[in-house]
Amino acid sequence: MRVDIVTLFPEMFDQILGGSIVGKARKKGFLQVCCHRLRDFSPDLRKRVDDTVFGGGKGMLLGAEPFARCIDTLMEHLGWMPRILYMSPRGRVFDQAMAKSLAAEKGLLLLCGHYEGIDQRLLDEYRVEEVSTGDYVLTGGELPAMILTDAVSRMLPGVLSEEACFVEESHYSGLLEYPQYTRPELWRGRQVPEVLLSGHHENIRKWRRRESLKITRLNRPDLWEKLPLNAEDERLLLE
Ligand code: ADE
Fold first, then answer.
1. Which CATH number fits domain 168-238: 1.20.1280.260, 3.40.980.10, 1.10.1270.20, 3.90.1150.10?
2. What pTM does this model have?
3. Is 168's pLDDT higher than 80?
């Protein structure tokens, strides 16, 4: 998969998308990430990309033309049209299901806003989809673009060593993940739950399922309400 990112601050992405699992995915060729400096596409001699807002109001808005020039140049270079997403607190809220579906795309083009955002006409012209990482406002779209790229890349086939890595983790099946433990068995007087040391696979599976159910009910009543409980789940919760 190819991810292109248009930003005022391309250097922000080097560390986060250059190391660890995403960095390895790039080195192995599962993922290609290209950052484009918005200022390089400004038609202005002084390379300005922002201006005041029509109708009044505080702050500056990023103009449509630098983004349009960047998108057109990229599409000409690629010969195909990636799915264009604008990172914005006004967008559809990003979740694991969206990460999974975006991982099936050939390419994504992520637009990062700053200041008051981007001229609406750019979003209309290119039928851009708005995506939010949550109900809060950040200073720019760079962190959300990194979050989306990270979550999507780990869903690409081959990036994680085994599918088991993510079928059990939080949000994959609508449940949050059960607690996990490593050595030592006793730490500051706290013992690893006995069942996990028993080697009894069926009891371990049931214990993990019960813990997942309990933590989801406690921390995320919104997910809990949507969860289709089976007969075994009802029994585990009663025990
Ligand atoms: N830009 C600023 N805040 C944002 C958010 N919550 N999600 C996506 N992009 C943003």
1. 1.10.1270.20
2. 0.94
3. no
